[in-house]
Structures are given as C-alpha cells and as structure tokens.
C-alpha cells in the first residue's frame, strides 16, 4: 500500500473513531463519567417494512412535537429484493431479556407489501441488534439485521420467549385469512422448528371444512381453491381459532399455561405449556369465550390475570368495545367462570364500537392501557376496580388527534399498539391507518404521561399501518 493510501486509511479510521466516541458520549454520559441509560421506543412500520427507533427524551421535547426529529434511525427487517424493492411485514415485537436483541414477527414474511394484496403469507422472525438499531449511522439500512428464522406456519402474530424456545401463534393459513390452529415451538439458538401445538376446532361446528391440497400456481390477490374464507368478514369464519397475541400465565401452584387471543372463534385458548413441551400435539385444555374476536392480549406482572382486548368479529361487520379479565387458575381448571370481568373501554355507551387493540399493563400491575382504534382514544383502566365491579374503573379516556394533511383533510388517529416504560411513567402508542402508498410513512407515535394522563409527545413519520411497539433501555 502506498504512503498516501495508508495516510488516507488512518485518517478515515480516526474520523470513524471520533464519530463513534462523540455518539457514545452524547448518548451515555451523565456528565459525571457514569453510563446513563436512555429509553428508546421501537415501533413497527408494518406496510413500510422498517423498524423505527425513537428517543423518548427527544419525543417529549416541545420543539420536536409533530416532527420526525425524535426518530434516531430506521432499520430494515429484511434485505431488499434483488431488484431493490424493500421486503418485510413487521407486525409484532418483543425485546430479549438482556435488552440486546429485538425479535420482529414479520406477519407475512419477507414480502413486498405493494404486491402481496392478500393474507396467509408464511411468517418469519427477524432478529435485530438493538445497539445497531439506535445508531444513526445505520439509518435506512439492514445493518442491525442478524438473521431470519422461519416460523413454520402462516400469518404469525403472537410471540413469547421461553429460556430456550420461541413460541409463536399463527393467525392465518396458506394464502387465506382463515384456517389457522397452530402454535409453533422454535429453538432460540438454532432456529429449528421443534414442534407445533394444534388447537381444537370448536364443538358444535361439525361442518368445519378440511382444506384440500392446493395446486400452484395461484394468481394474487386470489388464493388457491379452498373451503375456508379468504377474507373477513365472512359467515364461514368460526371453525378455526386464528390466534393473534399470546402470553404465558401461571397458576397459584406455579404451572405455566399459554393463552392465545382467537380472532376466529371469539375466545381465548388455554394451552398446557408443560404438556406441549413434552410433545403433546393437542395440549389445549380450554377455550374461554369473550365478547368478540380478541387480538391483543396482556398479562399482569404477577402472571395471574390475563387481559384480552375484544377487537372485532371475523364473521360479521361488528367491532368490540370491551376487554376481558381471565383468571389463570379458573381458566386452567376449565371453569365457565374464568372470565371474571368484562368492561367497556373507549366509551360509556354499550352500543358504540371502539375496537380495542393491543393492551399493556403498568409495571406495578395497577392499570391497563388500551388503545381503541375506532373511537380514536386510549382508555386507562384501574384493574382492581374493574375486577371488583366498581363503575369507576375507567380512570381516564384520552383522545388522540392528528394534524391536517397537505390536502387539508384530517385523518383519524387510529391507535393500535401500546407499551409502558420500565419506570411506569409513560405509555407509548402506535397509531395511523393503512394508506395506499406503503413506502410513504404516515403513522404516528404518541407518548402519554401516566401521571398527568395527557399526551406529551407526538412523533410523525412512523411507517404505514404500524402495529407492535415496545420500549428498551440502552
């Protein structure tokens, strides 16, 4: 190497090191030489196949309201297609126990949202390095992407972490929105599919169809010939659970159960986890009826109460307006009284449809935060009051609004996802309906101060139809 080339290389390395040092010092030094962790919001872009990393500190600054200034970086959840088209369909997210890795459920896998106009794509799991996600130098790249893991089934949504296993729920079947009755068990180290649990078909539906083998090719957006409905709402739904969110709860004796929110059968599955891990292919012990097709599901910190958000019917054009509280002990015993409470959220009128979506429970277990898509607000429910039948259970109902578009129209907020910071101070809400142009970020993230119960931050430009959202401290 020539001397001039060597000097240029050394200069580049020094510049890179100084940039890295400046970045680390700005982010992590509290002024006394100590590492100060910062909170970052990680929001899915969904139809815009990127993850959005947002600084909470920046999101609540008055100067940054209704701007993209708090967005630190955007990370691709799949490599671009060979022709340059971005791929992916980020629907749900979970942070690893050590806060180093983000697990992103690509609902339909590595697909092009502009071309895949149906349901039932084969899901995968993207593993992203969080440190790289929050590095501005990696903006709009796949630098944080470490690998993909095939889910083994279609329309993946729910994800829980076991010490050595991923458990993922399947909401759809091959190229259809209906027809799923699977939970997949995947080795965390290797990505190997270890097994599947099959959820029971409902009693009283003897005509539930068995899907035939599907020939190829098929023409999008029309799926293969099948007796199950391709899209909801359709009166043919109700044979298959089509599981959305999943959580793990524990009985008083310490036995674990998986709870799955079933959008197809309007109930919550109760799955004996130990039995499933022992190889039992049919470990479901009960189904707990709810108001209507739940999607989001949460668990209290003591793992004793499941909270399911009753989103919508897959059979008729009807959206729910309640959340269900399910007692783990009673559910594991198959008790008909396992749903111990059901309360309205987002409205006081039982005739108003609010479409509650993805709830989150505060770290102290006192409150559940519920985004209501149709009523464009966030409900904060006092859990103890709800369980006691106290009519004052809804302690706050916070409206969410958007600013006018360039055309002058004001779109509805359409909140979906929620997460709570580790200190319990803030709730973060992903919002924004799907727009025609997948790669034109149109979503919002709202930050709600849970002490004042007001919106204190609004970030624009967050994907298209964002769903899952989480927080991490780095």
Kindly describe this structure.
By secondary structure, the chain is mostly beta strands. It has a single domain, classed as YVTN repeat-like/Quinoprotein amine dehydrogenase (Methylamine Dehydrogenase, Chain H, 7 Propeller). It contains six helices and 27 strands. The protein has a seven-stranded antiparallel beta sheet. A four-stranded antiparallel beta sheet has the order 3-2-1-27. The radius of gyration is 22 Å and the shape is globular. It starts with a helix and ends with a strand.
- How much beta, percentage-wise? 35-45%
Strand order of the largest sheet: 4-5-6-7-8-9-10
**Named CATH topology:** Methylamine Dehydrogenase, Chain H
State the domain count: 1
Task: List the keywords.
mainly beta; Methylamine Dehydrogenase, Chain H; seven-stranded antiparallel sheet; four-stranded antiparallel sheet; disordered N terminus
Summarize the helices and strands and which ones pair or pack.
Layout: H1 3-28, E1 39-44, E2 50-55, H2 56-59, E3 71-76, E4 90-95, E5 101-106, E6 122-129, H3 130-133, E7 145-161, E8 165-172, E9 182-187, E10 193-198, E11 243-250, E12 256-262, E13 267-272, H4 273-277, E14 284-289, E15 294-299, E16 305-312, E17 319-327, H5 328-332, E18 339-344, E19 360-361, E20 367-372, E21 377-382, H6 383-388, E22 394-399, E23 415-420, E24 426-431, E25 444-449, E26 454-460, E27 469-473
Antiparallel strand pairs: 1-2, 1-27, 2-3, 4-5, 5-6, 6-7, 7-8, 8-9, 9-10, 11-12, 12-13, 13-14, 15-16, 16-17, 17-18, 19-20, 20-21, 21-22, 23-24, 24-25, 25-26
């Amino acid at each position: 190497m020539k001397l001039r080339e060597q000097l240029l290389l050394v200069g580049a390395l020094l510049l890179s090191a100084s940039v890295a040092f400046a970045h680390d010092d700005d982010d992590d030094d509290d002024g006394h030489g100590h590492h100060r962790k910062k909170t970052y919001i990680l929001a899915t872009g969904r139809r815009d196949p990127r993850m959005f990393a947002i600084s909470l500190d920046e999101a609540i600054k008055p100067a940054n309201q209704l701007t993209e200034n708090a967005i630190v970086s955007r990370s691709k959840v799949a490599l671009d297609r060979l022709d340059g088209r971005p791929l992916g369909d980020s629907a749900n997210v979970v942070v690893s126990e050590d806060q180093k890795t983000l697990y992103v459920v690509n609902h339909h896998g590595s697909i092009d949202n502009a071309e895949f106009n149906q349901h039932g794509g084969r899901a995968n799991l993207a593993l992203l390095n969080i440190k790289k996600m929050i590095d501005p130098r990696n903006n709009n790249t796949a630098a944080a992407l470490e690998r993909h893991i095939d889910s083994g089934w279609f329309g993946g949504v729910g994800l829980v972490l076991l010490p050595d296993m991923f458990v993922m729920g399947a909401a759809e079947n091959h190229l259809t929105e209906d027809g799923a009755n699977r939970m997949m068990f995947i080795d965390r180290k290797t990505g190997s599919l270890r097994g599947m649990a099959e959820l029971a078909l409902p009693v009283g539906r003897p005509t539930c169809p068995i899907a035939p083998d599907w020939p190829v090719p098929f023409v999008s957006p029309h799926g293969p010939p099948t007796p199950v409905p391709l899209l909801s709402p359709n009166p043919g739904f109700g044979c298959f659970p089509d599981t959305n969110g999943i959580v793990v709860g524990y009985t008083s004796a310490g036995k674990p159960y998986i709870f799955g929110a079933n959008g197809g059968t309007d109930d919550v599955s109760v799955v004996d986890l130990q039995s499933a891990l022992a190889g039992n292919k049919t470990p479901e012990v009960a189904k707990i009826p709810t108001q209507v097709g739940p999607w989001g599901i949460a668990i209290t910190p003591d793992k004793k109460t499941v909270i399911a958000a009753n989103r919508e019917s897959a059979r008729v054009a009807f959206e729910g307006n309640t959340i269900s509280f399910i007692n783990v002990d009673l559910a594991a015993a198959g008790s008909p009284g396992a749903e111990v409470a059901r309360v309205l959220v987002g409205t006081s009128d039982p005739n108003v449809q609010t479409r509650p979506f993805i709830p989150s429970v505060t770290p102290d277990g006192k409150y559940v935060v519920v985004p209501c898509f149709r009523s464009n607000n966030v409900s904060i429910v006092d859990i103890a009051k709800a369980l006691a039948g106290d009519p004052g259970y809804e302690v706050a109902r916070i409206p969410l609004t958007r600013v006018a578009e360039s055309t002058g129209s004001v779109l509805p907020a359409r909140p979906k996802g929620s997460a709570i910071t580790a200190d319990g101070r803030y709730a973060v809400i992903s919002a924004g309906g799907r727009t025609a142009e997948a790669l034109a970020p149109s979503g919002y993230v709202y930050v709600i101060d849970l002490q004042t119960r007001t919106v204190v931050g609004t970030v624009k430009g967050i994907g298209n139809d964002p769903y899952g959202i989480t927080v991490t401290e780095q």
